[in-house]
Amino acid sequence: MAMEAAMISSQSKPKTKHELIRSLNKARISQIEVIEPYDPSIADEVSKTAKAWTAKSGQVSIIILRMP
Predict the structure, then answer these.
(1) Residue 3 lies in a domain
(2) What's the pLDDT score for residue 5?
(3) What are the φ and ψ backbone dihedral angles of 7, each rounded to 5 degrees?
(4) Neighbouring C-beta atoms of residue 9, cutoff 10 Å
């Protein structure tokens, strides 16, 4: 039986940068992709990346950040 990975928000959804960093530090992460800055014209790229990652084993989390 495969062991399911703990998701970042398994305890509570992080609402602050500190909570997010703490959750990320606890997570076992095997791959990271940063796509920035987001623009609606690259929505297909974001979707394509997410679909490709879900084809592999493991859980996929998408984190959206807004910066001033």
Answers:
(1) no
(2) 58
(3) -80, 160
(4) 13
